[in-house]
Amino acid sequence: MGNGEQIKTDVLVVGGGTGGTAAAIQAARLGAEVLLVSEWPWLGGMLTAAGVTAPDGNELAAFQTGLWGAFLRELERRQPGGLHHGWVSFFTYEPAVGAAIFADWVAALPNLTWRWGHHPRAVSRSGERVTGVEFESFSVKAHITIDGTELGDLLALGDVPHRWGWEPRDQWQEPSAPAALNDPTDPLAPAMESYPVQSPTWVVVMQDYGPGETAPPIPSAGLSADFSGAWDGYGPEQFLNYGRLPGNRFMINWPQQGNDYGVGLDRLIGTASARHEFWQEARDHSQQFAHVIQAELGANYGLAQGVFPQLETTPGGGAFALYPYYREGRRLVGVATVREGDILPRAGGQVAPLPINAAGEVDAIAIGNYPNDHHYPGFAMPLAPKAIHWGGRWTGTPFTIPYGALVPAEIDGLLACDKNISVTHIANGATRLQPVVLGIGQAAGAAAALCTQQKCQPRQLSTRHLQQTLLQDPQAPAMVVPCFDLLPTDEHWMKHQETYLSQPHTYPDSGFTYSLGKVPAATALSTAATKPFRGQYQSGKNNSHQLLQPMGNTGPALTLVAVSPQAVHQLTQAIDGSTLEVNGIHNAGGHWILVNNITTIDEL
């Protein structure tokens, strides 16, 4: 260890992003002494400091478990105006509200110490075991170190085997991967040449200052970036409503000719000065986009004030996120690797296969369901489909993350818990989303605490013990085998989870535990207030649903969408032309009603 203060702890978490924050909280809740060291004054990463306050995936009621579900319920309690504003997500909120939740959870744990404003300088090793990390003014020795950095910084500092970039198709038998990495005739060659990893986005929040008002002018960043066609096919209103936040604010994280930025991505894993150079360019790119939005859509649209704290160490702050939304970084070489085949549905089914480890056991410790989504500015990535129509809307087919993807193949004393897990470049497009990473972090924290209690290494830990710990957590029990209709309030929830873990051959290809129409009555998860809407029902293509002339027989038709299996079943039973009274939440940005239940169906 280096000079300065010497600290000893059970668990050291480096990085206060989505995964690192969850890992620190979960490890401390299980009794471990935890030190969390972060670069930024806000915890939560993508969910807060990086500004992506419109989380993607795990939106279905059955998947709102663990720390992710607890976070949603707390957001509902704290966010003025509720969470139903934009159409890219069922949950949008102010970044400061999310940051306050994580800060409060951390402050409630006396065995969890948080230090921010520090960067790792070196990783200490004893042979093939990581023993701690050195910072500029202190050093830490820990039984288990967790790399919660979003770019996998500890992997590089500790010479832990890792990957950066693309893999060829035959390495993992991935249908969407390139046939070869150095073939200029491959259709993916332009993307591979320009983008070793997915492009980040520097999120900016804009404000509608009101009709007829003039917002402070947004200065041009002096760039020649081409944003033409950014909202083609959507229109200005739908474009802005994509990430609408409470209070007439808009999260600008737009992929089509928008503010994704991918120039010189290798700088992210270069020197500190190279990374800061990339930061400034990405931030300027988003400022230029905001300048164009104001110029073309109206002077009433300006930068929001005071959304993020102002720091001297970043070009972010104010309306700009503290740092970029990273979609990919260094990726661990782990005991198991998540490949494209692990996230795609089984043949003829709607769920991915459960991961099986070398001992023949189900290795699942976190769930996700987002479609595979890659970002390369100017290039549309063709990917094997993994999306379905469910609840009147597109969603992704469910998959799981194996514990082995968090564990280095060769190094002890270390776990990964963010986008730095062992995953291929292709599969990262589905595993990188906020709820998935929150679940990965929760599992990593639980594993670290169990390793401390048992005085063992991560590779020696019983996966079944870890799964039981997650399922039985007294504060935030987490689903580990995804089922569309198995709600955490179901009295048989635990029994079914344990059955699928011990008898994986019984896990249904459909993803439904119960037969059609046999789903038990639900106890509502959401605490959001609903109200009744009455109108005439009309079905649409792709299993969509509409309510005609709702809200007192005035106004346009509204789409009906649902996230609970009971509401979905009720919608599928509705008859065209019948009159429905729907209890739900109106989302003006998405032009839909999120259905809680249908209380009456009167056929005309």
Structure keywords:
seven-stranded mixed beta sheet; 604 residues; alpha+beta; globular; 15 helices
If you had to describe this structure to a student in words, what would you say it looks like?
- The protein is of the alpha+beta class and 604 residues long.
- 24% of the residues lie in helices and 20% in strands.
- The chain contains 15 helices and 22 strands.
- Strand 4 (122-126) and strand 5 form a beta hairpin.
- Helix 11 (434-454) crosses helix 12 (463-471).
Structure summarized in a few sentences:
The protein has 604 residues and is of the alpha+beta class. The chain contains 15 helices and 22 strands.
Q: Main sheet? A: 7 strands, mixed
Would you report the number of β strands? 22
Strand content: 15-25%
Tally of alpha and pi helices? 15
- Going by helix content, strand content and strand pairing, the class is alpha+beta
Q: What is the typical, i.e. mean, pLDDT?
A: 94
- Our Rg estimate from Cα atoms comes to 24 Å
Low-confidence stretches: none
Ends distance? 78 Å
Shape descriptor reads globular
Helix fraction bin: 10-25%
Topology (elements, then pairings):
Elements: E1 5-14, H1 18-29, E2 34-38, H2 66-78, H3 95-107, E3 112-116, E4 122-126, E5 129-134, E6 138-147, H4 153-157, E7 162-163, H5 169-172, H6 189-194, E8 204-208, H7 236-241, E9 244-245, E10 249-252, H8 272-297, E11 301-303, E12 331-332, H9 340-343, E13 364-368, E14 387-390, E15 393-396, E16 399-402, E17 414-416, H10 428-431, H11 434-454, H12 463-471, H13 493-502, E18 531-540, E19 544-548, H14 550-553, E20 558-561, H15 565-573, E21 579-587, E22 592-602
Parallel strand pairs: 1-2, 1-6, 2-3, 6-17, 20-22
Antiparallel strand pairs: 4-5, 5-6, 7-12, 8-10, 8-11, 9-10, 13-16, 14-15, 18-19, 18-21, 19-20, 21-22
